[in-house]
Backbone:
């Protein structure tokens, strides 16, 4: 059924929301104040036409916008876009009764993302490579991507050919592509089991195309050069397909906030440390204990430390912080804590931090909702929230990162 709708607001996923007699209808690629024509099914609308556009509507810079589901907000002008991102953080804090004026949003530029996860599928007409259409399993074959570094975009034809060689499944699969200092690191997942001949063919192709490393489901097929990224003065080779902050400039900005807050710390703990984006930078100034549940990430961090001169001592601990958080007694050995958990946040670990006497805490999160929950726990435990800085490293998406800095007030004697 096609109806005319007035868009009232933007939802948390970047969809326009129309309020009707039957309830809310979510219409992607629309803006508040717009009158649109949409085909509605239940609470979802497919945009057919913009009848009365918002003054904040702009021309999308990418030809695939509106079909590709990789971006949802290319149609909104910069100031309104930045306000939407900041409001996502502010609203989450308000729901937890946390009052603080946000620091200015740290932006990232187009064409700057160094790590993308592409979807691929082999068809009778060739191999599709791109992103899923919004709310669909269909893969939109892309020729450009305005969020990714040019080195990744220029490699799309090569990556499509490589995906065809690596594919041994009729279902969609994924490849994580990371632009490193030594070339592209390409990691396939769920692409099927390659026979020996297929492995040799894919490896030879990757070598010819100067791919730094090629892996399938965590197994390295060929590594012509170690794919390296820098965390401060340390050079690190992340594990195949391993987590890495999406935009290097955003990582630098977040690390600068964390390190500035920990300036007087002598011994810090980095929880959910990954491969060491914060730990190895902190180690230029203080001793660090890095805790992480992934063995390969910890090994990469440890190698980065051991092969970098001039760092303070870095120790590592493999530990599932969701099942077994560090206790407040463990934490009292440190005078600074940084934690950067997955989207689920760090509820149990935050409860232990709240019971500790650690004077400085930095919380980094890609989920404002779980960040606000964890900050509420820390504030209720006696911490004072110093600042919250939104960081936009997920350009033109509804996602936003944030760095929150806290301190425990000194007790008067």
Residues:
């Amino acid at each position: 059924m096609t109806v005319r709708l007035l868009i009232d607001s933007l939802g948390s996923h970047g969809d326009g929301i129309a309020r009707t007699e039957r309830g809310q209808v979510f219409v992607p690629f629309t803006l508040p104040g717009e009158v649109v024509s949409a085909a509605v099914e239940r609470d979802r609308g497919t945009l057919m036409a913009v009848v009365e556009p918002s003054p904040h509507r702009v021309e999308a810079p990418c030809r695939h916008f509106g079909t590709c589901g990789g971006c949802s907000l290319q149609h909104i002008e910069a100031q309104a876009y930045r306000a939407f991102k900041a409001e996502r953080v502010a609203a989450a804090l308000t729901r937890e009764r946390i009052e603080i004026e946000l620091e200015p949003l740290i932006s990232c530029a187009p064409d700057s993302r160094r790590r993308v996860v592409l979807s691929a599928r082999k068809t009778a007409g060739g191999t599709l490579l791109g992103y899923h259409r919004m709310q669909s399993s269909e893969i939109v074959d892309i020729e450009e991507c305005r969020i990714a570094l040019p080195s990744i975009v220029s490699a799309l034809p090569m990556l499509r050919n490589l995906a065809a060689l690596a594919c041994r499944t009729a279902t969609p699969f994924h490849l994580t592509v990371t632009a490193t200092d030594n070339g592209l690191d390409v990691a396939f997942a769920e692409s099927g089991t390659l026979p020996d001949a297929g492995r040799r063919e894919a490896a030879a192709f990757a070598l010819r195309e100067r791919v730094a490393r090629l892996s399938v489901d965590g197994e390295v097929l060929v590594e012509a050069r170690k794919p390296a990224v820098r965390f401060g003065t340390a050079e690190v080779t992340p594990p195949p397909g391993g987590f890495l902050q999406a935009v290097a400039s955003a990582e630098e900005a977040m690390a600068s906030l964390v390190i500035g807050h920990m300036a007087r710390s002598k011994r810090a703990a980095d929880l959910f440390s990954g491969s060491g984006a914060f730990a190895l930078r902190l180690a230029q100034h203080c001793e660090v204990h890095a805790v992480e549940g992934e063995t390969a990430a910890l090994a990469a961090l440890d190698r980065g430390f051991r092969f970098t001169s001039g760092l303070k001592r870095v120790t590592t601990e493999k530990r599932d912080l969701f099942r077994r958080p560090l206790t407040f007694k463990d934490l009292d050995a440190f005078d600074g804590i940084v934690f950067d958990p997955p989207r689920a946040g760090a509820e149990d670990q935050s409860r232990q931090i709240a019971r500790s006497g650690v004077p400085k805490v930095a919380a980094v999160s890609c989920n404002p909702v779980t960040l606000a929950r964890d900050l509420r726990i820390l504030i209720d435990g006696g911490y004072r929230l110093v600042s919250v800085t939104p960081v936009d490293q997920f350009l033109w998406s509804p996602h936003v990162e944030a760095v929150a800095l806290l301190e425990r007030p000194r007790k008067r004697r």
